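Form 7-S
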Amino acid sequence: MQTEILRTILLVEDESTDATLLLRGFEKAQVMNPVVHLTSGDEALGYLAGVREYGDRRKYPLPALILLDLKLPGMTGIQLLQWMRVQGEIRRIPVVVLTSDSNPDTIDAAYDLGANSYLVKPGNTADIARMVQAIQRYWVKLNEPPQLVMRAGQE
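Output:
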C-alpha cells in the first residue's frame, strides 16, 4: 500500500486573528496537510520563487493550494496573483482568494488574473469552521492538483 503524500497548503494572511481562526478551523476539520502561514505578499513571492530562506524545496515544497488574502502589506494579493500566473509551473497552483472584500470589481479582477475561487471571509467562528471544512473537502480531498516539479535546492 502506497503512503499518501500530504501536500502543503499555503495560507497568505496578514491579520493574525483571521489566520488563527483559519488555522483552528483546519485543526477542527482534521486537515492533516501541513499549512504554511505567511503574512505578506512579498514573503509569499519569496516562498513560491524558492529564493533566500525558501530555496530548499524539500523543506519548503510548492503548495498544492494557496489561500490568498488580497489586502496584504507590500505586494498585494492581486499583484501576487498576477505574478504567479506568468510563472511556469507556479501558475498551475490553485488559488482560493479568501478576503473581506466583496466589491464586484475586485472579484472580477481576481478571476481575470486566474483565481480559481473567491470566498468572502465569514464573520464568526462557526461559519469559518464550515468554510474551512468545505475548502478541505473540495480542494484537498476531491480536487486533483497539478503535477508540479519540485526543484530542491534551487536558488
